[in-house]
Amino acid sequence: MKREVSRKKVLPAFRIDVAELGLLRERLVALFKDPSSVHCSLTLELPSETLRFDTFEELKNHQGLPSTVTNFSLWLMEGGRHITIETVGIIGSKPQVRVEGESDAWCAGAVETAFIFFTQHKAPYNWFIAAPIGWLLVLLIFGAGFASSFLAKDGKVPLPAFVGWLSLVVTFTLLYVLRAKLFPTTVLSVRNADGFFRRHVAELTLLVAVLSLALTVIGWFVAK
After folding, report:
1. Residues in contact with 196: Cβ distance below 8 Å, sequence separation at least 6, in sequence order
2. What is the pLDDT of residue 62?
């Protein structure tokens, strides 16, 4: 009899570099019965091509790679055991770890090893991706009516409150529409060729949005 067990788990949004991905590979390889016979494959999905590497040395020596890659997958196999880190998928899809083997214990251990690693490398904006942005937009739009009943003077909504509410709706609408571009769920840094602002454009954009939200709420109370 041959028994096959499969386990998978959704991963948080993360940002890692090649060295850190190599560290994860070492930890996962150590879980197999014979680490020396584990076959590893790393696939990068670029806009115009797909690249597959059997070793990280191949990746480091390859010329012409972009500074960051957002779609990639890591696959390890030895015998009937498989571990796959999947980040390639449709827009808005979440990365996940998928494990196959002959025992529940081994599969569960491999899944948790990968999950803990990526939890330690969460992207600063992971909380924003996990938040229900669509519902937040609905609350911002329809919640204005309730807010106006507290803020209105002589039946009129103060101009600062209206402007603040409108800016929030526009800001979060843009963040929602451009979320796949601004807040990628997976980022593999191949090299540090970009400047500080370009590397952290997602975090800075989100920081501005959160500050706008805070200032708007404060403005509502001041105007009341």
Report:
1. none
2. 86
